[in-house]
Amino acid sequence: MNLLIQLQKELATLSKSEARIAEAILAQPEAATNYTTAQLARLAEVSDPMISRFCKSIGCSSFPDFKVKLAKSLASESSFISKAVSPGDTARDLIEKRVSANQLALAFIREELDPELIEQCIAILKASKRIEIFGMGGAAAIAKDAQHKLFRLGIPCVAHEDHLMQRMSAAGADKDSVILMFSFTGRTKAMVEVAQIAAAKGAKLIAITSPDSPLAAEVDLAIPSGNELEDTTIYVPMTVRIVVLTIIDILATGLALALGENMDDRLREIKHSLDDTKTP
């Protein structure tokens, strides 16, 4: 795994001392490749031996080995850490930090997305006769984006953000239905209840959500949303949104290819139907 992504993912589970070390590295990853043990210990306000213990706890044999892996992570993935913006940041700072956060999102997908899981999801979508798409709150717009991509492929689909509509739709589902669900945390009670209703009706359930969440436990397949990259309980996330939107694009593209050669003609015809709506 990319070392920067690993540190970001494990930050909440580290001890206080280890977390200070990780935060010092994530704040300036490029500079950290040149730190001495003493410099990093001073920045993190820990003892020198603590640096060695930290390196071993994250799978590195030594501090020099850690610096090599850190440098490789920076070079191979061009990854950057999503650093929170601060009061007084200039426009240049904001651009750098937000672009860096979104680059981290794409690096997360490359490292963490399981190709076999994606193939299974595409197979389920292809076999369905109807796709119901559920998202609430900040995920509602994502559900609409999924509908916008999938409806063109010839499988009837509809997106619902209203909880009552979701419940009724779930209750009307059957074994030929697929429920595609979006929830950043996977802890929204209403979404978990809807999943339970749809599962009882025999529908196939796919969720893009936090993999260890209550929602993930209720569905057939759960794709990681990258929720650990950003605190989605504080504000409507952007880094996680980039992850989920990219996953939708991957699923839609894979489904279009799986549906066969005629799909290209169908998509071309739909696109050309808009020609007369444009000004010269």
Overall description:
With 280 residues, this protein is α/β, with parallel strands linked by helices. The protein has 2 domains: 78 residues, Arc Repressor Mutant, subunit A (Orthogonal Bundle), CATH 1.10.10; 161 residues, Glucose-6-phosphate isomerase like protein, domain 1 (Rossmann fold, 3-Layer(aba) Sandwich), CATH 3.40.50. The protein is 57% helix and 9% strand. It contains 14 helices and 5 strands. Strands 2-1-3-4-5 form a 5-stranded parallel beta sheet, with helices on both faces. α9 links the parallel β1 and β2. α2 packs across α4, α4 packs across α5 and α7 packs across α13. The longest helix has 22 residues. It is elongated. About 2% of the residues have low confidence. GO terms for molecular function: carbohydrate derivative binding; DNA binding; DNA-binding transcription factor activity. It holds the Pfam family HTH_6. One of its GO terms (biological process) is carbohydrate derivative metabolic process.
Keywords:
single chain, Rossmann fold, five-stranded parallel sheet, 5 strands, 280 residues, elongated
